[in-house]
Design the sequence.
């Protein structure tokens, strides 16, 4: 079990981590999700022992490890770049953690063969890493992390530099590979989709702060804050400022009302948000809320359409699951189900609400 | 129906300036040397064909053998000192901060000084009567005199060349070292690799190419060295520092033995060409190895 207690790290006025507290269990996959510069790598460096926090405590299985040198922590790390020893063969690369640990040759041969088999590297054991493809190079790096049987495995955007196909393939294999090890597994990524596919727990990071930590799906379904919802949304979350007066929502600064009535929501300023794929062209039920805007651009992929439009001067995007071209500047209407709507208060925290039962 | 191929001979005019330049600067002088090397003259512009006689004479002469051995020994020592020293200094140089530019400027300084000035600096520096080095050593009671003592003459020349050219090795190695991403060092720390292992398995493989270039450049330059030893020792004492280049000039300009001198310069030229070819082959085959094995994705 890895415990971070009130970890803070800053250099001068620049704050990298701000009061981070997390608890991660062995055998669990923990995803650090956040845009670049959100503190993912800083956090990993502290977990690995490469950096020391300015304040806070780091415990492994209940014992503080802040004073322990990196070399003695039994940590394995895989990076976005494919880091291997350039002059050593694939075999020697995979064997290197065992060599440092002075494992006997027979054991090394056996374990390397096992791990190589698992990662489909058996045929490449005699080659050097720079003669392999990117995906194979990263497999070698993963094999090195795997064979070390570390207590803590840190994967820092390990799939970011791979092409699409390989990424899908490795992404599916990774959790299974490491789950069997009983290590605390930490995986950093900038992609919400990747977090969703991997499952496990997710930490939403924003400017060195933990926005939310919990099971990945829970985070996606009920983001605790507007930030958390924004980090965990791809394409970007649609939001608009609204005012609530007597349960009736209206766009801020205008009299345009939204056809929804809320119960148990005090009057005040709110932010209304909805994920792009929850907008549809046709209303499915009578309760569906209508939003209107002017198209700025339409992106067509093979099977999907991204319609960018301005909704009361806010840039919104709708993801439609068919191909449809919209004329620029034309007026469009989209519909969303009330249950897919998020409401955040003026402190950006999620507000629980109930639709009023229409009489 | 056959298509008439139009020959456009204007192209020859386009390459003419280059051809003329190369002819004047390289081919004609080289051919003159070849011409001299197979003929003998007794003055008065009368020449006699002697075939390979001069070549045989040079290749059999002890004087040439000794000069060649001295030059090889000099180059060997220079490489043995400057390459490891250059790597060590490059490793010790700061990788970021204000120290970088200070170090780089300091390192580049000796490279900017003209060769004969370097020779003059050291010629004065080492003098027992007024030189800082020579006088200091003398007042310490050390018997140092590069104009009389064989060992001192060699030490002075090697020290001078190390002072002048180690910077080049440093700069080349440094450029290789700074191109290694920081994550490699991080990964090595996490693996628990020792300082030596980091050098042996990460830094050395990554600077291998620039190191090859450094070795090539330093070998060629030291093998052809002329100006500095000419200024400092003039080939002496005796002819203990008479390298091939100095010997050649003595033969051609001093004794005016044009035939043997021409033969010798061709042999000298062929040795350098051979070494260059060996280096080139080694370097390109190293590159080809990497590409033929599937080509790295990075």
Sequence:
């Amino acid at each position: 079990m890895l415990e971070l207690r009130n970890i803070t790290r800053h250099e001068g006025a620049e704050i990298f981590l701000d009061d981070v507290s997390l608890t991660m269990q062995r055998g669990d996959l923990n995803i650090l999700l956040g845009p670049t510069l959100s503190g993912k790598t800083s956090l990993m460096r502290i977990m690995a022992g490469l950096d020391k926090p300015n304040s806070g405590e780091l415990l492994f299985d209940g014992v503080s490890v802040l004073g322990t040198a990196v070399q003695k922590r039994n940590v394995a790390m895989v990076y976005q770049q494919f880091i291997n020893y350039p002059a050593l063969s694939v075999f020697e690369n995979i064997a290197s953690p065992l060599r440092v640990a002075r494992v006997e040759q027979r054991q090394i041969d056996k374990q390397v063969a096992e791990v190589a088999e698992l990662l489909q590297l058996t045929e490449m054991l005699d080659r050097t890493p720079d003669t392999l493809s990117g995906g194979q190079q990263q497999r070698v790096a993963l094999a090195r992390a795997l064979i070390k049987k570390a207590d803590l495995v840190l994967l820092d955007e390990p799939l970011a530099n791979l092409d699409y196909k390989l990424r899908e393939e490795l992404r599916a294999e990774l959790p299974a590979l490491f789950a069997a090890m009983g290590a605390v597994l930490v995986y950093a990524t900038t992609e919400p989709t990747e977090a969703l596919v991997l499952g496990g727990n997710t930490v939403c990071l924003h400017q060195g702060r933990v926005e939310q930590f919990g099971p990945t799906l829970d985070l996606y379904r009920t983001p605790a804050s507007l930030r958390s919802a924004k980090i965990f949304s791809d394409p970007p979350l649609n939001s608009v400022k609204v005012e609530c007066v007597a349960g009736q929502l209206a766009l801020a600064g205008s009299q345009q009302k939204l056809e929804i009535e809320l119960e148990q929501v005090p009057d005040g300023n709110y932010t209304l948000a909805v994920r792009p794929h929850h907008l549809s062209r046709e209303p499915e039920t009578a309760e569906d809320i209508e939003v209107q805007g002017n198209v700025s651009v339409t992106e067509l992929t093979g099977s999907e359409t991204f319609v960018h439009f301005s909704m009361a001067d806010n840039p919104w995007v709708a993801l439609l699951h068919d191909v449809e071209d919209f004329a620029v500047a034309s007026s469009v209407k989209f519909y969303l189900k009330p249950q897919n709507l998020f409401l955040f208060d003026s402190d950006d925290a999620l507000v629980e609400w109930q639709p009023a039962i229409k009489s | 129906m056959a298509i008439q191929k139009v020959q456009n001979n204007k192209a020859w005019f386009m390459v003419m300036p280059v051809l003329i330049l190369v002819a004047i600067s390289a081919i004609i002088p080289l051919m003159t040397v070849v011409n001299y090397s197979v003929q003998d003259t007794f003055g008065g512009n009368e020449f006699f064909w002697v075939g390979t006689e001069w070549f045989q004479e040079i290749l059999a002469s002890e004087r040439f053998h000794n000069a060649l051995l001295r030059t090889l020994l000099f180059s060997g020592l220079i490489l043995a000192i400057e390459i490891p020293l250059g790597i060590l200094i490059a490793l010790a140089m700061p990788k970021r901060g204000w120290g970088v530019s200070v170090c780089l400027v300091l390192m580049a300084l000796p490279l900017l000084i003209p060769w004969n000035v370097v020779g003059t600096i050291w010629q004065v520096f080492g003098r027992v009567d007024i030189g800082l080095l020579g006088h200091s050593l003398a007042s310490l009671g050390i018997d140092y005199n590069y104009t009389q003592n064989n060992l001192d003459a060699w030490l002075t020349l090697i020290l001078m060349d190390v002072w002048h050219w180690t910077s080049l090795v440093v700069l080349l190695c440094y450029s290789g070292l700074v191109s290694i991403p920081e994550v490699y060092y991080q990964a090595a720390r996490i693996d628990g690799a020792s300082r030596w292992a980091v050098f042996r398995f990460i830094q050395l493989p990554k600077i291998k190419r620039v190191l090859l270039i450094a070795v090539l450049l330093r070998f060629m330059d030291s093998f052809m060295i002329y100006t500095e030893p000419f200024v400092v020792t003039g080939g002496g004492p005796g002819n203990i520092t008479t390298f091939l280049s100095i010997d050649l000039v003595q033969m051609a300009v001093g004794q005016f033995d044009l035939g043997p001198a021409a033969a010798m310069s061709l042999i000298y030229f062929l040795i350098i060409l051979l070494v260059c070819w060996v280096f080139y082959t080694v370097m390109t085959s190293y590159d080809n190895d990497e590409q033929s094995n599937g080509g790295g994705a990075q």
